[in-house]
Amino acid sequence: MGSPDHHPPKPPVPNAVVPLRVRKLDPRAALPAYQSAHAAGMDLAACLPEGESITLTPITRSGGIMLVPTGLAIAIPPGFEAQVRPRSGLATKHGVTMPNSPGTIDADYRGELKVPMINLGHEPFVITHGLRIAQMVIAPVAHARVAEVAELDETARGTGGFGSTGR
Question: Which of the four CATH numbers 3.40.50.1240, 3.40.630.30, 2.70.40.10, 3.90.190.20 does domain 21-140 have?
Fold first, then answer.
């Protein structure tokens, strides 16, 4: 049993509201927005110059990763991060996703949010201004205190990885 002054950490409060300051770098940029009452992520929209689009060609046709601008910069409170994730509809219907999912935005980053995107589908995919391209989740961050040790404690799993717990 722990000492009387030891208290386990409290879990995050469900539905806690975290202040997120957002600066539009382009007046046409769309603010991040939740699309339903219980959505975990806010949608991020493409912010492209008037009349321009970005075509994501399939990776098998010399396509590559494109950085899609949002026209936004944010100030995340210390102790939090933003996780940028693909939108499930774009991924399942078109094969359009993010190669580094989730992408992490640290609390001290102040540059423009750009979303790396790739087309794993079979047809070119056109991104136009205002298209919702990704989701952003604000999440608490814990910092680890690193301690070098000579041995690690044993577990039932041990060193098994990459499929060792089943199909």
Answer: 2.70.40.10
